[in-house]
Amino acid sequence: xxxCGFPSTxxxxxxxxxxxxxxxxxxxxxxxGARIHPSDVAHRSLEQDIADLEFFRAxxxxxxxxxxxVAIASFGVYEVIQGYMDRAVGPGVFTRDNIxxxxxxxxxxxxxxxxxxxxxLRSLTSRLLQVPMHGVATVASRVVFFDDSRENIAGAKHxxxxxxxxxxxxxxxxxxxxxxxxxxxxxxxx
Length: 190
What we know:
single chain, alpha/beta, 6 helices
């Protein structure tokens, strides 16, 4: 699966960017809390660690085919995330350009970024949607963000990322079926 550029979408209801948190959102485990090292990822079971592997693969494939950018905003370790994503959806889909970790925001990976996920969302949005940082607010509502933290979701919504979804039970087909209508994406996977 190759990463697509940013063509215009044929439907105005589609988001321009979908961003996921990693631990306890895409993963059903907390890789940082479990002290998973980059060298461990190759030996881990994707089916056990990724909450809904087949659905995630299908979602990413459809998003890219429809010109919707994908990204990850995590307080975790970049190399661990990259290892999982290369195995899950193939090399080149998720790269340093669309995986945001604390080391890009003035602190070490595995630490909380000052301002929570908002600086990461702003940076990813600016870079991937090719808008200046001062213009992020004009496109923030075109970003869908999934995270397991109420605090991160509240911060994102307060900053204009209004399509932010709390994932109390991970990013799965079941969650998607519950929220796709509110996002105006009922037929996204059809």
